[in-house]
Every structure is written in C-alpha cells, then in structure tokens.
Amino acid sequence: MPSLPWARAAAGANTYDHAAEAVLPTVYERTTAAAMKAEAINLGQGFPDGEGPQWMRAAAAEAITSDAGPTNQYPPGIGLPVLRDAVAAHQEAHYGITLDPAHQVLFTTGATEGIAASILSFAEPSSEVVAFEPWYDSYGAMVALAGAELRTVPLEAPEFRPDIAGLRAAVTERTSMILLNSPHNPTGAVFTAEEMTEIVAIARQAGAVVMSDEVYEHLTFDAAPHTPVLSVPGAEDTAVAVSSVGKSFSLTGWKVGWVTGSASLVNRVRGVKQFLSFTSAPAYQWATAQGLEDDRGFFAENQQQLQGARDMVMSGLTATGLRPFRPAAGYFILADVSAVTDKTAAEFAAELVEHAGVGAIPVSALTLPSTQQEPDNALNYLLRFAFCKDDEVLERALSRLGKWIR
Ligand code: PMP
Ligand code: GLN
Asked: Could you report the average pLDDT of every consecutive run of 10 residues in the chain (406 residues)?
C-alpha cells in the first residue's frame, strides 16, 4: 500500500497506476470512455437513458430563476430545512422511522459524500473495516484514506446472501466499522430484516459503527421489501444510513444525498462533511424535497419499468450462453462468463467493448487486489451489465452479444 493519502485512496479503489505513480479514473468512467471510443453500447456505468421526472427538473429550474427562493447563495451546511423535513417525512411515511429533522438528517453532496464523511468519521487509523465483497468502489478508497484496513466477506452466487457466520468471524475487537449496502450494487441482493438485525447485533457487540448505503431503496422488484437499517432493533445508536436522489428519481447528476441516524452519530459525521463541500446547490435540494414529499407515482412506475428491463436482459443474456443471476433490485445483472470463455471477466470485458460493441464492468474492479490474484475466485468471472436503459438499446446490445459470443 503506498503511503501518501492520494495514492492510498487510489489504490484502495483499484485506481492507482503503480508504474506511472498516477491516478486512473474510476472503473465507471473508464468503461464509459472505452465504450464511447469504440462506439459501443454502454451497459457499464449505472445511469438511466432518460432525464428523470420533468416536474422535478422544472422545480429546480424555478428555484434557480425565481426571486422567491431558495436563493442561489450558500444554503445551510446541513441542508435546506425543507429538504431535511422532506427526508424525515419520507422515512416516516415509507418505513415508520421517526427522525428529528434538525439533528438527525444531514444533507450531503450525493451519497458519495455521505459515504466519505461517514467512513472518515468512524474508521479509526489502524483499525479494520469489514464489508461484503464486491463493494462499491468509494468504500475501498475511503477506508484506505482513513488509514484503516478493509476486510471482506464474499457474497456468493447464485443468491449473494450475506454470510452472517462469515461476518461474525471477520469482526474482531479491531473492527471500527461494518459497511453495508442493501439493496446491493452490483449483485442486486436485498438483505432481509433478519439479516440486517443480525448484522447490527454483531456490530453492537464489537462496538463498531454500521454505515448502511441504501441508495437503491426504491428499486426493488417483485415487491421485495427494503429494510432500512434504522428500522432494526439496536440500530439507533449504532448505525447511520446513506441515501440520495440519484437512483430513486433517475437524476444521477444532481448529487443530493443525506445521512440519517441518531443526533449524536449524525453530529459526528458533520464534523467531516462540513469541511469536504460545506454545502452545494440549493436548487437541487429544493427540487429533491418536492420529490420526497410526493413522488407522484414515480417510484412505482420506475420499479415496473426496471423490472421489465431486468426480465428482458435476463432472458437475453441466458440466450447468449452467459449465466446471469437474477437480481432482486437495482440497475445491474451479474453474469458468469466462465459459461462461454476461459478468460477472466476483465479480459472478456475488454474484448466485448472492442469486438461486440458492448461495454460492461468486471466485478473484479470492485474487490480487493488479493481477490483478483486468486484464479479460482468466482468473483473474477462475473461481469456486470446495467439494464437501466431504453428497451431498444438493451435489445440492440443483447443482439450484438448474442452474435459475437456465438
Ligand atoms: N452507493 C452505491 C451502492 C451506488 O451504486 C452509488 C451510485 N449511485 C452511490 C453510492 C453514489 O451515489 P451518489 O451518486 O448519490 O453519490
Ligand atoms: N453508481 C454507479 C454505478 O455503480 C456509478 C457511479 C459513478 O460513476 N461514480 O455504476
């Protein structure tokens, strides 16, 4: 592990170029750039083809141009009151979680900043942080920046259920944090209330803080219920939850996020957050508040559309000979490439984008370097396809894949 902070962060997320001693863009950006260069269809980075609800975009535009407010000057660092009220009302309406908007909701610039601030607040230097693997890239970067060590518990196909016994074995008195992500990117697993309860109990016993990344909370399929960490017994003084506007409203560029939890934990996260960005665009906070107060049917509509796309891509991938695993939520399907090739998913992805004209993300980009060194590790043969795209785009991509693989 390199010693300077920038290099530690980069290496922690597999974005450190050792030879050049330089930083590579994230795997998402690299895949998007490779797809553009090869004029390929990009099923890599998870963003929808559409533009998000028109009425929310109109609310943001109105907020910028109207003299009625919010103004275009600095909003409060912890977020506009209207946004904090809306987050609290949303948690109450959807999950029966009661939060004091003055002290238990912290606005962040996207979930990414909420994750960074939470990890930098609670991951003690030289401690261990435990996460399920594969993980979201920013976890690896921030744990390394904090000077802690990331330990992982693998999620295994076909169900990718969290291995509670494995987690119990991985958590020790050195563990400062447990990082959760449910619904999970990239596997699409939705952790059950029982699993969440056991995870929180393990954290409490170790005196560790749980950070639960819930950005896919409104993208569950077949009526799979999302269990927010704060609904679990014992989580009140143990866990913070992170979510954002991006995935819930198909507005990934807005970067409005929030951290919720006890007044004391949220106050501690503020200690870092207010010196990362202090705050950001009030117009987007304002418009996000409108959406959270009343989604006007968007959540249900979006779920239905995504579930249809999931089903189409599941059968399309199966027809190509790849072995896809059915996700219960989110934007992504993982497929086992070893059904059609001896190559790793990273090698196969490089060929796909060049020759088949389809960009996808190898799961190994979202694992520890030591995992990538294990030729028998199943995670090295999984490729992630995003299906948050128009039907016509997905059909073309599936047809290209089918032709090339055959
Ligand atoms: N966590 C996970 C699991 C994600 O997939 C993403 C991407 N939406 C984020 C965090 C980052 O969210 P945001 O764009 O709100 O920063
Ligand atoms: N969350 C998106 C994904 O998993 C990417 C976000 C990003 O580009 N940082 O694909």
From this structure: 93 96 96 96 96 97 93 96 98 98 98 98 98 98 98 98 98 98 98 98 98 98 96 97 98 98 98 97 98 98 98 98 98 97 97 97 97 97 98 98 94
Residues with CB under 6 A from ligand 1: 110-112, 136, 181, 185, 213, 215, 244, 246-247, 252, 255, 257
CATH topology of domain 5-51+298-405: Aspartate Aminotransferase, domain 1 (3.90.1150)
Class of the CATH-defined domain 54-293: alpha beta
Distance 139 CA to ligand 2 centre (A): 12
Q: Which atom of ligand 1 is nearest to the CA of 115?
A: 10
pTM given for the model: 0.98
Amino acid code (one letter) for 178: I
Whether residue 232 contacts residue 197, with contact meaning beta carbons closer than 8 Å, is answered with yes
CB atoms inside a 10 Å sphere around CB 275: 11
Spatial separation of the C-alpha atoms in residues 200 and 204, rounded to whole Å: 6
Domain ranges (residues) in the chain: 5-51+298-405, 54-293
Which of 43, 47, 254 for mutating ligand 2's site (highest number of atoms within 8 Å of CB)? 47
- Quick one: which H or E segment has residue 251? none
Count CA within 13 A, CB hemisphere, residue 301. 8
